[in-house]
Design a protein that fits this description.
40% helix, 4-stranded antiparallel sheet, single chain, 12 helices, Jelly Rolls, 7-stranded antiparallel sheet, alpha+beta
């Protein structure tokens, strides 16, 4: 049997490791409890006194806190997120200038690549990784074309790579880059830029389809609507659609329906050109589309001045906002399209003339159908020449 004097030294490393593990576990438990205190903060200073105390304690920690802290920062609570960010920034500012800091880079790269996490902390982490590994971002972004948070930067980089290839007379590679940028772009300006690049190398790019712009309509108006009464007044097209009908409008003028297909690069319809210059009036736009299957989508529109939209006879977008202009994607509403035929009716109000008579009174409409990321959905325009209820 070994002497006690020989057993004790052999046990010392095991005891030391056990103590370290217990200490580390206790520290992690304390961190979790402190982070939970901050998670319970809310608006108007709720929980701020307790949060301030634990924030100051956590900010003294080293980078070993970052995995737990970043996980906590992935929150929809903006108050807690701000508290966490101050801890993060204090730790990073201190440790970035220290020598021998062991950054959890593997975790950070996994975190920044996780599209299920909040965008703001992901951007903070990307900035830090780029400080530690300056070549990381440019290489990483090439794989982020489908990442909603970093898509725009990835598309911009892809367009730049295409431009560089084109300057080097490598048209084949440039075309591949431009195709990729066009297919993945969701921002209207980037879609347009990518389409222009593709045109420059001899390829066609359908911006209308990519953005889901509805460009083919039947139009009627103007109905008389003084003193901004048009939004609340239901004219005949709201009760039934008959493309053979004629109506009486401003000044006793009679009018019917006209077919109109806009050629604007971003699908905007100029109702002044189509229906005539007018003030304090209402116009209607009607179209019919088909889709292959039931699907969720978004109806995004803008009008000068304001508009109401009915899908298959039911109101889906109602916005009374005067004198705001037709801004791209001004209004966004979730919709459900049914397999086969779907009808869209839009009421566009025209307000009074601006108090400055020199200011032109625009009247316009823009509407598109897309997924939640902004990519146009697949549909076919199916307008018959004559339609009855």
């Amino acid at each position: 049997m070994p002497a006690a004097s020989s057993i004790i030294p052999a046990l010392l490393p095991i005891v030391a490791v056990s103590i370290c593990l217990v200490t580390a576990t206790q520290a992690q438990s304390n961190d979790a409890e402190r982070l939970a205190v901050i998670a319970n903060t809310g608006p108007q200073g709720f929980g701020s006194l307790a949060a301030k105390e634990v924030r100051d304690e956590l900010a003294k920690r080293s980078v070993e806190l970052l995995p737990s802290l970043l996980a906590a920062m992935d929150t929809s609570n903006p108050v807690a997120a701000n508290w966490y960010r101050t801890i993060y920034e204090e730790i990073v500012t201190r440790e970035i200038h220290a020598s021998g800091t062991q950054w959890p880079l593997d975790f950070m790269k996994e975190y920044v690549s996780d599209t299920n996490r909040q965008g703001r902390p992901r951007r903070l982490v990307l900035k830090l990784i780029n400080q530690l590994e300056p070549e990381f971002e440019s290489q990483w972004l090439t794989e982020r074309l489908a990442d909603p948070e970093f898509r725009n930067e990835a598309v911009a980089l892809t367009l730049s790579l295409g431009d560089q290839a084109l300057q080097s007379k490598d048209t084949k590679s440039a075309t591949i880059f431009f195709r990729s940028a066009f297919a993945n772009a969701r921002d209207r300006s980037q879609v347009t830029q990518a389409a222009q690049r593709l045109t420059s190398v001899g390829e066609k790019a359908d911006v209308n389809t990519q953005l889901g712009l509805v460009t083919d309509w039947w139009l009627t108006g103007p109905f008389d609507a003084p003193a901004k009464s048009g939004f609340e007044t239901a004219f005949e097209p709201e009760r039934s659609i008959n493309l053979q009908a004629t109506y009486e409008g401003q000044g006793g003028r009679s009018f019917g329906w006209i077919r109109h297909q806009t050629t604007d690069a971003l699908g905007q319809m100029n109702l002044v050109n189509a229906l005539g210059q007018t003030d304090e009036a209402v116009g209607y736009a009607w179209t019919e589309i088909t889709v292959e299957q039931n699907r969720e989508a978004e109806l995004r529109c803008g009008a000068d001045d304001c508009c109401l939209v009915w899908l298959n006879g039911k109101p889906v977008s109602t916005h009374e906002q005067w004198l705001n202009g037709t801004r791209f994607d001004r209004f966004i509403n979730p919709i459900e399209l049914q397999a086969g035929r779907n009808t869209i009716l839009v009421k566009v109000c025209q307000g009074p003339q601006h108090r400055n008579p020199e200011v032109f009174n625009y009247w316009s409409l823009q509407l598109r159908l897309c997924d939640k990321d902004g990519r146009g959905i697949s549909f076919q325009t199916a307008l018959p020449e004559v339609v009855h209820d």
